[in-house]
Each structure stands twice: as structure tokens, then as C-alpha cells.
Design a protein that fits this description.
alpha/beta, 7-stranded mixed β-sheet, globular
């Protein structure tokens, strides 16, 4: 397990009195709240309670380990194993910064299984007692996966000698696969519903604590003026927090608001919406009868309208009592693609690349009208900021917190200041001493795949020297193994993977009457066109700060990979890509649009135009690293780097 710092036990006595809430002036010092989303925690050193199976033995650590295969990681948008170490690194960093309040906007475990919830609970308890941290959790589409517990399991845990090992909650849920190893059965791998989540993590916001100054749910029967802990406790049980998603289908809503420190309210929104698949002759208690919650707010506004009413009530109360209200949930409330979603929808030929998760414009409008100024979300594993300003000049800001299980690993700190501003800082998790602890096990997997003539991943990922570099390599392999295959138009993908940077430079000058693929397949036949294009490109370069040499060191795949890096990390990716390379891209995009024929019928030219336009929007989004939010207006100001 990760090495803890020496534990310092602090004994303290808290004397509180319950008094009626009255409007107060906010004259506190800066209050820091960390937001760490999409941890996707899997307890790689956890123990099953109902089987002797311990995982595979790692000679490097002399420990048994429950990990997923590298092949599984490289086909997933999240890392399954090394994020275990990243969580400890992030929490240690928060402790070193003196942060006492930590919010987790969903997907805190990978699928809400007992073994992982138990491990996370122990970690949160340790940091609570050691560093006096308070944690506040809201739900994500991975926890719970559905409103009620359901059988589950995976076929891609790692077994002996690098083979895939199936682990399932019961024999009926286990899949038939080509694994040579017999499946392991443990109920600890079952996906728990709300009841199971609450049983493990109730103290972390889901239920009132004596030190909270205020706590309520959408179903509470009291207000801040007459709040008492006993009243809150009486309203906290899950059975008192139910609503009808449709008539006859009653499920929980885990939303709550809490005042952990004077004058600050954290609004934890449970934006999970599980729409029944069958309402006629369906079983409301059958967990398989509910759809995924991954869509988020587009379904909240249609199927969870009571939340909008409650949010408005809470926002009005916060305003009356002069509280700073910070909303957080798992899902974004504003287009997280820097307003490039419509372009991307055309580029990807539909709702690929998780475009179905983009919230409708009415979501931000409704939440702004309800009184929300600042919202922190996760879900997409990206670093981004979205802002919408309405006719009343009031703005709403959506802060997308990056995941520690993907590129770029990090978390956000919101500093609430006495002058009605909120400073937002992005902290990246770059170096973790033992991030490569599992590499010897991956080497066994690689050897097994190679010896059995099975598809292998790029071994060079095991040569990375830092956790951030590991996440970069993970994204690169994800692009190669999954994104290009699943999302891209196959013809355009093949076109781009066989083109050089210099050829990209020449494209806008080629004869628009002839499609690009024909021009590439018959270069000798069209050599005059290619020569003319190069001459025109040379003239254009003379008016810029670049030369042909600047187009010799990279390929179209590098451009594609950097497209994904910028989308994931926003401005934080520029240090990894390089400022000059970004400038080359910007000039290339602008030059292409200035010179390309407006009568484009060639599909490759059309796709390239859309690709460039989307990439350009990614490079021109709102500040996402360090910035200031005016709490009263929602106006956003970038903090310039020193």
C-alpha cells in the first residue's frame, strides 16, 4: 500500500450551540475547497471477504495484487490501476496545502463494488483523522451504476503468468470467454445501488454530521432558520429521499446541501437519472430494468424536475443569508467541447465521441435562473471551463475537473475570498514515486500475449518515467487502439494516417476540382499540380515565421494525437506539445481556411475543414487553468502566469 506520512493524532473538543440562522457578512479568510473527480478507485490491495483468492503475486512488492490487465486499460478512457497511487498523491498534496474540505463529484469508485467502496472508506477515514479533512461526495454514473444492486464482474483482471482472469459476483453473471483460467466468484464484486453506497460512505456528506452548521435534502421539512442536527438526522434515511422517476417507479435521490464552515454552502446534486426501459409489465425492483445515468442533465430537466425547484429554493436561501453557494455534481452543465460540438457531430457522423453527453443550452439557462453561479463537474475526464451569459448580464460558470485516472491527472482548488470572488487553481499530479510498482506484472502479460500470438500493446509504455508521462502514453494508445477505429470515418482516417505534415501544408493549394485521394494516388500524373502547390506554400511561409523545416518533424498522426491532448487537458497540454508547435497548428488552420476552395465537395477536404475548425475552437476556449470568478456576476478573469 502507498506509504502514509507519520500520523499525528490531534485531540480536540468542539463546543457548539445551535442558533437560528441570520444573514451575516462574509468576512472570513480564504476558504479552500478541493474538487477531485472521477477517481475510479479500484482497491488493488483489497481483500475479498468470501474467497481466499488474493490476486497475482508481485515479486517487486512481495504483495498480492488485484489489478486489471494493461490491455484493458489501453482500451478504456480511464486507467484502472495506477490511479490507486494517484489518489494518495493527490490527497497528500491537499494535506500539504492545508486543505480541509474535499468534494468528490462522482465516479469515486469504478463501479460501486463492495471491495472498492470498503477500500475507499478506509482511505477517507485515515485522511479525516490524520489531517482533519472533511469529504463531501455526490453520485456518478459508475456509483451507483443503477438505483439497486446488480450482479456484475469483469473478464480482464490479471491472472497468473499475465493471463486474463475473470472475477464475477456469481456464476450466472460470469461470461463465457477464451480465458484459460477458471472464473473467481465473489459477492464483493457486485455493483451496489444507493443503499450499498450509503452503507459505506454515509458520513461523507450523504448524512448530517454534528459539526455541520446546516444540512438538508430536497425532501427535508425544515429551513436554515430552524435547523437542528436531530431534525436533519430524522430526514436523512434513504427511504425518506425517494421520488417517482415515472409513475410506479420509485428510486432514491441522494442530493444534499451542507454548510461545513461558516457562510459556505456546498450543493451536492445527484444528477443521476435512471429511466426505466419498460414501464408496461416491467418490474420496478429489477435493476436491469433501468437505463444508464450517463446522459446527465438533459434527463434531469425532463425526469427530475423536483431538483430544479429545490435548487432554486436553496439558492434563494443562500442569497438571503449571504452564503456563498457552490454547486457540484458529476455531469457538466455547459458544452464541454468549447462550443465545437456541432462541428464534431458532423465530423464524426453523429453522436460518437460521447457527444450525446453534451448538455442542451437550456440546462445552463435553467440553472442560472434557479440562482446557480458556479458549478463544478466531472464525468468527461477533461480540464475545461464553460461559461454562459444571459440577457440579464448574469453568467454561469461550469468548471470541468480533470480525472486522476486519465490525461491530464489533476484536481481543482476553489478559494472563496472575502471580496465575493472565487479563485480557481488547477493542480496537476505529475510525479508519483511508486507509479511503476505494477510494471513487472505487465511484463508478464506482454510476454503471454506475444508468445500466444495475441494482439499486443506498445511495450514502450513501461519505459515511462512519471505518472503524467504514463497517462500521455495511455491516451496515445487509446487514440490508436480505440478512438480512430471506433469514431473516425474510415476513409478519412486512412487518408490522415498516410500523410505527412508537409503534404498537409500543400493541401489548400491543390486543384479543388480533383479529389484529394486521387491526387495522392497519382502523384506522378499530377506532378505539375503538386509543384504549383509547393510554390504557393513557399510564398505563404515567407509571410510567416515558419519554414518547410517546421513541417518535417511531425506527421498527421501527431496532429491527431495533439487534438486529443488539447481536448483532454486544454491549456495544460501546451507545455507537453510546445508553444511553437501550437503556433504552427494555428497558422496551418488559418492558412488552410484562407486558401481552400469554398465549393468543397471532396469528403476528405470537408472532414479536414471540420477537424481544423474543431481543433481551433479547442485552442480558443475560456481560461481553464487559473482564473477568478466574480461570484455576484459570474464574470471570469484569467490569472496570467508569472
Amino acid at each position: 500500500m502507498y506509504s502514509f506520512r507519520p500520523i499525528v493524532f490531534i485531540i480536540y473538543f468542539v463546543v457548539t450551540s445551535i442558533i437560528a440562522q441570520k444573514p451575516v457578512s462574509i468576512d472570513t479568510q480564504d476558504i479552500q475547497i478541493a474538487f477531485i473527480a472521477d477517481i475510479h478507485f479500484q482497491d488493488i490491495y483489497g481483500k475479498f471477504s468470501d474467497t481466499d483468492y488474493q490476486g497475482v503475486f508481485n515479486n517487486k512488492t512481495n504483495k498480492f495484487t488485484l489489478l486489471r490487465t494493461m490491455d484493458a486499460q489501453l482500451h478504456s478512457t480511464r486507467i484502472f490501476n495506477e490511479n490507486y497511487f494517484a489518489l494518495f498523491a493527490a490527497l497528500d498534496d491537499m494535506a500539504a496545502k492545508g486543505i480541509k474540505f474535499v468534494a468528490l463529484p462522482g465516479d469515486f469508485t469504478d463501479d460501486g463494488q463492495t471491495i472498492h467502496l470498503r477500500g475507499l472508506q478506509q482511505i477517507l477515514q485515515t485522511y479525516s483523522s490524520t489531517y482533519d479533512m472533511q469529504f463531501f461526495i455526490t453520485t456518478g454514473n459508475h456509483d451507483p451504476v443503477g438505483p439497486f444492486a446488480q450482479e456484475s464482474g469483469k473478464s480482464d483482471f490479471m491472472g497468473i503468468n499475465g493471463q486474463a482472469q475473470g472475477i464475477y459476483s456469481n456464476s450466472k453473471s460470469s461470461n463465457k470467454n477464451d480465458n484459460k483460467l477458471p472464473n473467481i466468484i465473489s459477492e464483493d464484486i457486485k455493483k451496489l445501488g444507493y443503499k450499498g453506497i450509503f452503507s459505506h460512505l454515509k458520513p461523507y456528506g450523504f448524512s448530517p454530521q454534528k459539526n455541520y452548521l446546516f444540512w438538508a435534502t430536497p425532501f427535508s421539512n425544515y429551513k436554515a432558520d430552524n435547523y437542528t442536527y436531530d431534525k436533519a438526522l430524522a430526514n436523512a434515511p434513504l427511504e425518506k429521499r425517494m421520488y417517482d422517476i415515472v409513475p410506479g417507479y420509485t428510486i432514491p435521490d441522494a442530493s444534499y446541501v451542507v454548510e461545513p464552515t461558516p457562510n459556505v454552502w456546498l450543493l451536492a446534486i445527484d444528477a443521476n437519472v435512471y429511466i426505466p426501459k419498460r414501464t408496461t409489465n416491467g418490474n420496478p425492483l429489477n435493476p436491469k430494468n433501468y437505463g444508464s445515468a450517463s446522459i446527465g442533465y438533459n434527463n434531469v430537466v425532463t425526469h427530475k424536475k423536483h431538483l430544479l425547484t429545490w435548487i432554486e429554493t436553496i439558492a434563494n436561501e443562500a442569497k438571503r443569508l449571504n452564503k456563498t453557494l457552490i454547486a457540484f455534481s458529476h455531469y457538466p452543465i455547459i458544452d464541454f467541447n468549447d462550443d465545437a460540438s456541432e462541428t464534431l457531430k458532423s465530423f464524426f457522423n453523429g453522436n460518437k465521441w460521447q457527444l450525446e453527453r453534451v448538455p442542451n443550452e437550456m440546462v445552463a439557462k435553467l440553472l442560472s435562473e434557479a440562482g446557480i453561479t458556479v458549478h463544478v463537474g466531472g464525468h468527461m475526464h477533461i480540464n475545461d471551463t464553460g461559461i454562459r451569459t444571459f440577457s440579464n448580464e448574469k453568467s454561469i460558470v461550469n468548471i470541468q475537473t480533470p480525472s486522476i485516472a486519465a490525461y491530464i491527472p489533476g484536481y481543482k482548488i476553489l478559494k472563496i475570498k472575502p471580496n465575493s470572488t472565487i479563485e480557481v487553481n488547477t493542480i496537476t499530479i505529475n510525479k508519483i514515486p511508486n507509479f511503476n510498482e505494477l510494471f513487472p506484472l505487465y511484463e508478464q502479460e506482454y510476454t503471454f500475449l506475444k508468445e500466444n500470438k495475441l494482439p499486443v500493446w506498445n511495450y514502450d509504455i513501461l519505459k515511462t518515467n512519471s505518472y503524467k508521462d504514463f497517462t500521455i502514453f495511455h491516451l496515445k494508445e487509446l487514440v490508436r487502439l480505440r478512438f480512430l477505429k471506433d469514431d473516425w470515418d474510415s476513409n478519412f482516417k486512412n487518408f490522415m494516417l498516410n500523410i505527412s505534415a508537409e503534404e498537409l501544408l500543400l493541401l489548400p493549394y491543390l486543384n479543388p476540382e480533383i479529389d484529394l485521394q486521387t491526387m495522392f494516388d497519382n502523384k506522378e500524373l499530377y506532378k505539375t499540380d503538386w509543384k504549383t502547390a509547393k510554390d504557393k506554400a513557399r510564398m505563404a511561409l515567407k509571410k510567416s515565421e515558419f519554414s518547410f523545416h517546421d513541417f518535417e518533424q511531425w506527421t498527421a498522426f501527431d496532429l491527431i494525437f495533439d487534438f486529443y491532448r488539447i481536448r483532454n487537458a486544454d491549456i495544460l497540454a501546451i507545455d507537453d506539445i510546445g508553444i511553437k508547435q501550437i503556433s504552427i497548428y494555428q497558422w496551418l488552420f488559418k492558412n488552410y481556411n484562407l486558401n481552400i476552395s469554398k465549393k468543397v465537395t471532396d469528403i476528405n477536404r470537408q472532414k479536414l475543414t471540420e477537424f481544423y475548425n474543431a481543433f481551433s475552437k479547442f485552442l480558443n476556449g475560456s481560461p481553464s487553468n487559473n482564473f477568478i470568478i466574480d461570484y455576484k456576476t459570474g464574470k471570469l478573469t484569467k490569472i496570467e502566469s508569472k
